[in-house]
Amino acid sequence: MGVEVVSGGVVEAVAPAKEVSAKAEAVAVAPGAAAVAKNTSFREESNRLGDLKDGERKALAEFRAKVEEAIVEGKLFDLEDSTAATSSSKVKVEKKKKEKKEGKKKKEKAAEEKKAEEEVKVEEAAATEEKKTEEEPKKEVEAVEEKKAEEAKEVEATEEKKEEAEPAEEKKQEEEAATAEDAGEAEKADTAAVVVDKDVALWGVPLLPSKGDEATDVVLLKFLRARDFKAGAAFEMLRRTLRWRREWKSLAATAADDDDGAVPEGACRLDGADREGHPVCYNALGVFADDAVYKAALGDDEGKARFLRWRVRAMERHVAELDFAPGGVASLLQVTDLKNSPGPAKKDFRVAIRQVVDLFQDNYPELVARNILINVPFSYYAFSTLFYPFLTQRTKSKFVVARPSKVTETLLKYIPIEAIPVKYGGLKRDGDSEFSAEDAEITKVVVKASSTETIEIEATEGDTTLTWDLTVLGWEVSYKEEFVPSDEGSYTIVVCKGRKMGATEEAVRNSFRAGEPGKVVITVENATRGKKKVMFRHKAKSSSAKKC
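Now predict its structure.
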């Protein structure tokens, strides 16, 4: 069986699919090879230690030392714990100070009342003495008054000394209380530090460098790259991530078991791999166009929390597919389909997406090699301005945006055509029993502007079933299929009537059982001013082969 491409009335014989000549317009490429030029800007740094620069090695060594020390001393989670303890201690001290100030005010008020009572008593005594001595000489009266005045002064001086002594005593008590609180907190911290977990791990990789696991450096490098190789910042990021994971697991343990049903199946799934071997995660946001789904997932606080848990669990499942060994595939390719997704007017949707973006950026550093947004509507550009300012420059550099007419062409830069789902213009079908990535090569045909190309698939013997997959990037062409028998006396059979193919057509799959030798002729007419790329694969099954 062979393939023949006819161009401009000239027939060029092409060898069977596995021997197609590079000189022909149809060029066969092995599965996984680039059918179109790769995107040269798509470069992911190596995770091998030998490929690091001197400054990067130094930063990694410093980061390793910090992690080692924190784990061995049991202080990996101390950042948040000590802060909380200090805050609690300050609150207690402030409360005691407030209580003492109120007590002081009460004492001052009591002292004033006592002083007033003493003055009243002095005045009453003076009045009594004055009455008794009305007839005594004036000199004696003055002496008595001076004596009473001196007694009053002595009383006042005594009260003042008491008031001065009270603040000093209160200050001393406050200092003693603060010292006791600090000592108590220090004692608690020392007690907590005794608990050392040397088996602490992240994504299944041990974090203690002295364990000697090569994957440890790969994980640490992700945090370093997310923080521009600043060891201190990377260490704090790792601490916060571990703290978040500990709290999130506690939250998930109390969640309902039906979280995985929070969003329809297929909204987020792994499907195939890209040219570099990264698992490809497809996110279909169009599921939220359904009001029932939207309300269930984002209609209330409980639904939002369930949605977030569902997305985190999906991410955890995807991360489990990665290989953190040096040289392994340790990141994902993420494709987000915005077709029919809610617009920026949906506040709950905006908030939910922002939460997911922030959470993944903070706690899953460098686990996404590329973010491809497809079927992007004009409203996206307004939507993107809401969360782009919160992304790091490194994260922004990983985004690729494709309008509906460029979806297949864009995905093809990163994913081979046989691994792109058929709904995005590729050849991959769920549960495909006819083709696999290994058993059929992909052939490319270029149809020039205002020209026609024919592809011929031969059946060298009768009772042969021919099957083919074919797609045209951007379509906008006329397409038809016929079977032409080798016997000139036989009639040509129309397999598929001629029709115009729109820009968003899915790949064509068809088959024909040839009762006699002949060939299926596929005609692609390009009436546009630009060239078109046809990509196809085919196979033949003869009855004699089945019998054997």
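The CA atoms of residues 476 and 502 lie 5 Å apart.
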